[in-house]
Design a protein that fits this description.
This protein has 10 helices and 12 strands. By secondary structure, the protein is α/β, with parallel strands linked by helices. The strands form 2 sheets. It has a 6-stranded parallel sheet, with helices on both faces. Helix 3 links the parallel strand 3 and strand 4. The longest helix is centred in the middle third of the chain and has 18 residues. It is elongated. The two termini are 19 Å apart.
């Protein structure tokens, strides 16, 4: 056994890592981070099909059963291979916790943490409205204290705008973003509010140029210079409102976890229905988020930290 109480095993993707990291930290587990890589053709197989896990894992030497701690937290479809392999070798000597729907029976894991809109069910399945994540008050307060800009030059209310990018659920094109930008301008000038616009890693360069052009002459709206440090976490602490494109479950969940009033721009759908669309509609129906419009609909400011809630449930089960 290692000095670590847990491994968190994910693909090399920030969203998946942050979910597993957030849960481990909420459970106060010292952990080691491992990124899983798969051999061909396993890396092409769809979710729910996980043959011969031990042969599938390319970097098996980083997760040897003989070195495994008592708890393994996985997130994402490729990490399922690691969970299945370690459980088959160690049985009850390891507790496996998987985040997201693995598309196989939850009986293969000790615990599954899945979004409310996922169809998976079971006595060991725990559902959340928002995604578990690494955002907490301590993290964003520290980020704000360490960030070189305290945002005091921006008048209140202060809005953080974050754009996602193209995915299989929504169209992310110039026309849609132009309409969103016009709505942001309307809100800012109606409320005499400042806004700071940020981009994600997925935001197309053409959309970035469009936003720079749209807001370049607007004194109330700043497109953040990407050559400077990213103020995302600091702004999650400092801002009064968060405006988001609707393409990311993680972005919406992080804003809610930061206890910010969260408003989305509904991009045109590529599908008639999807789990992400179900999550968005359910959150709108429960008045947990709203759409960008003026006047801004009133929303409750605080949300229960679902990551902390799940962590406490799991700790109770493990004692």
């Amino acid at each position: 056994m290692t000095k670590h109480q847990a491994w968190i095993i994910t693909e090399n993707a920030a969203g998946m890592y942050n979910q597993a990291k957030g849960l481990a930290e909420a459970m106060q587990l010292p952990y080691q981070q491992i990124y899983i890589t798969l051999r061909k053709p396993w890396d092409y197989f769809p979710s729910g099909f996980y043959p011969l896990p031990q042969l599938a894992i390319r970097n098996l030497e980083t997760m040897l059963p003989s070195q495994c701690p008592k708890i393994v937290i996985t997130s994402g479809k490729r990490s399922v291979y690691a969970s299945l392999m370690l459980k088959s070798k160690l049985g009850k000597n390891v507790t496996t916790i998987h985040i997201q729907d693995p598309k196989i029976s939850p009986e293969h894991f000790d615990f599954v943490i899945a979004p409310q809109h996922d169809p998976i069910q079971g006595s060991n399945v725990y559902k959340t409205q928002f995604a578990v994540n690494h955002i907490n008050q301590s993290l964003i307060t520290h980020a704000a204290s360490e960030f070189p800009d305290d945002f005091s030059s921006y008048q209140r209310p202060l809005i953080m705008v974050v754009l996602g990018g193209t995915n299989r659920h929504f169209h992310f094109d110039n026309d849609s973003i132009s309409q969103m930008n016009n709505q942001i301008k309307n809100v800012c000038h109606s409320m005499n509010a400042n806004a700071i616009v940020l981009f994600s890693r997925r935001t197309p360069s053409a959309i970035k140029k469009l936003c720079v052009s749209s807001f370049s002459s607007d004194p109330l709206i700043t497109v953040w210079d990407e050559s400077k440090p990213n103020p995302y976490l600091a702004l999650l602490n400092r801002c009064d409102y968060v405006f988001l494109t609707c393409d990311s479950y993680s972005m919406i969940s992080e804003a809610a976890s930061a206890q910010k009033r969260t408003y989305i721009y509904r991009l045109p759908s590529k599908k008639s229905n999807s789990r992400l669309q179900s999550f968005i509609q359910n959150s709108l129906d429960q008045n947990l988020i709203s759409t960008i419009q003026y006047p801004l609909p009133d929303l409750p400011q605080t949300h229960c930290s679902e990551t902390d809630k799940i962590a406490q449930i799991l700790l109770t089960k493990l004692t």
